[in-house]
Automatic annotation (TrEMBL):
Belongs to the 4-hydroxybenzoyl-CoA thioesterase family. This is Tol-pal system-associated acyl-CoA thioesterase. Signal peptide: none annotated. NCBIfam families: thio_ybgC, YbgC/FadM family acyl-CoA thioesterase. PANTHER family: 4-HYDROXYBENZOYL-COA THIOESTERASE FAMILY MEMBER, ACYL-COA THIOESTER HYDROLASE YBGC. The keyword Cytoplasm does not apply. Transmembrane segments: none annotated. It comes from Pseudomonas rhodesiae. Coiled coil: none annotated. GO terms for molecular function: fatty acyl-CoA hydrolase activity. Keywords: Hydrolase.
Length: 151
């Protein structure tokens, strides 16, 4: 399903700590991926699904592919807003569009897309996204028609 832009936005707040930065106090580029991972996890939690609960149900979400663009640096002590919007919902995968913005002035720092596959815990083989989870994501993303791309 191709998701439509829904009214319900989501943003995870986080702070830049010393451990996130280089010697100049600027966020090291790979840490944006960590911030975005946390936002996807918190998005699931907001929908009522904990990663630990899903693992117990033979379900994991794994990143299949990622793309990131860096626009401006975040610095030590900045507060960040990290979005996690589902833009595509398939049988066994989700595509997230994410942005990292500075909370004080909404400056876009980094943006990316992540294809996240649903797999079985032990075999890591693809599995269908459970209907309850599919319905929850469709409700907040306004999912529409079926996508031609599928994992």
């Amino acid at each position: 399903m191709r998701a439509q832009n829904g009214d319900q936005s989501f943003a995870h707040r986080c702070r830049v700590y010393y451990e996130d930065t280089d010697a100049g106090g600027i966020v090291y580029y790979v840490n944006y991926l960590k911030f975005m991972e946390r936002a996807r996890t918190e998005r699931l939690r907001e929908l009522g699904f904990a990663q630990s609960q899903l693992a117990g149900e033979d379900l994991l979400f794994v990143v299949h592919s990622s793309e990131a663009r860096y626009h401006a640096p975040a610095r030590l002590d900045d507060e960040l807003l990290v979005s996690a919007e589902v833009i595509e919902l398939n049988r066994a995968s989700l595509r997230f569009k994410q942005q990292v913005r500075r909370a004080t002035d909404a400056t876009l720092l980094c943006e990316g897309q992540f294809l996240v596959a649903c797999v079985r815990t032990n075999s890591l083989k693809p599995r269908a996204i459970p209907e309850t989870l599919r319905v929850a994501f469709a409700a907040v993303s306004g999912a529409g028609k079926q996508s031609k791309q599928e994992i």
